[in-house]
Amino acid sequence: MKSFITYPINSDFSIHNIPFGVAVFNKEYIACCTRIGDMVIDLATLYDYGFFDEIEGLNENVFEAYTLNEFIELGKPVTTAVRLKIQELLDEHSSLAEDEKTIQECFYNVDQVKMMMPVHIPNYTDFYSSIEHATNVGKMFRDPANALLPNWRHLPVGYHGRASSIVISGTAIHRPNGQMKPADQPKPIFGATKQLDFELEMAFIINKNTEMGESISTADAEDAIFGMVLFNDWSARDIQSWEYVPLGPFLGKNFGSSVSPWVVTLEALEPFRTATPVQEPEVLDYLKFTGDKNFDINLEVYLQPENGAENLICKSNFKLMYWNMAQQLAHHTINGCNIEVGDMYASGTISGEEPGSFGSMLELTWRGEKPLQLNNGEERKFIQDHDTVIMRGYAEKGDIRIGFGEVSGTIIPSK
Question: How confident is the model at residue 71 (pLDDT cuts 50, 70, 90)?
């Protein structure tokens, strides 16, 4: 495929991608959109012009909306048909290529729009599915010889997080306050976290509602997953380490998470399927699956100090996940937990085996013992005020490249 819209060979938003998002156009109205190269396309106006008339099930203009929820709830027969139709329209030989009026009214340079949260998120779950990350944390906080807890290889560990504080890329994050218990203090103290961290994650978004009592099998899980985004699960390590026993993360996590604005569909990621790592011991029947369920997605993290340059501090890959998305959703629902359209499920920190692939400052600096050296001469044990963390992700195979753009967030002082 080749588009009549030109873009660099390394663009995240090739004709093979066709992601979905929500944007403010002309500072006047909000609508669902897609992107190719540096052009953002107003899908609501395309619909009004009749370009999607042939698609069964798309009976009203669901693109005239502040979120993608109504669109993705139509299900994959409709959303996949829309994506394929957009690819057809963007082809260099399509009739749209010569339709200057439609192009003028529906196509905007990325600098002319403001991206919004792509979905309304009713519920958010964060998993803990990288064996390398879980092992590193276990070595630091528990027993280096027995880093993984007894349940870790038997089920996808997770917890329910706070959906209301998930924000779009570019939103500033206030340094959180809370209780901490320094090792040299007899009592807990209160104040702003001194160990603010990022977590390199990805998240998938649900396209259906289920009733209480229903479960979703690993075989059916991907039919319920519309697509994926980059996800930065900000963490206050000193607050978290004091509070997390016995019930897990609370104030150390719920102050903010950042997501990328473009939702990349599983259909776009199809060429990048790869095998899930070998799982030992054998999992229970409801967690068994067939086929390649992981995806080969390159991930990078940059730290940019105030008025400074970006520093590449981590290179990892989503294919390393021990527990795949199908298993995560199957486990989440096996007890009859109902899911909702727009639900977001994050992977947990994505770390590799090498130090340069560790997906958090906690691991990269080994709890502050090995500070990172930045290219301006400064060093970092954790994230400081006015630092910006930028995450990027892309998949590449032959001449096909699919990217997620980026998710960024800047830390500002506590209120």
Answer: very high
In this predicted structure, the answer to whether residue 325 has a pLDDT above a threshold of 90 is: yes
157 CB neighbour count, 10 Å cutoff: 19
Asked if 11 contacts 37 with a C-beta cutoff of 8 angstroms, the reply is: yes
What is the domain partition of the chain in residue ranges?
21-115, 124-412
The sign one gets for the Cα dihedral 240, 230, 386, 172 is negative
Per the annotation, the verdict on 160 as an active-site residue is: no
Backbone angles phi and psi of 35, in degrees to 5: -145, 140
Listed residue (368, 392, 357) closest to 196, CA to CA: 368
- Amino acid 333 reads T
| Catalytic member of 133, 154, 160, 386 | 133
Confidence of residue 61 (pLDDT cuts 50, 70, 90): very high
Q: Which one-letter DSSP state was computed for residue 377?
A: S
CATH number at 21-115: 2.30.30.230
Query: What amino acid is encoded at 346 in this protein?
Result: A
φ, ψ at 163 (rounded to 5°): -75, -30
Question: H or E element: which one contains 71?
Answer: helix 69-72
Q: Given a cut of 90, is residue 26 above it in pLDDT?
A: no
Phi, psi of 110 (to 5 degrees): -55, -30
Topology of domain 124-412, CATH: Fumarylacetoacetate hydrolase; domain 2 (3.90.850)
- Quick one: how many helices (H) and strands (E) in the chain? 9, 26
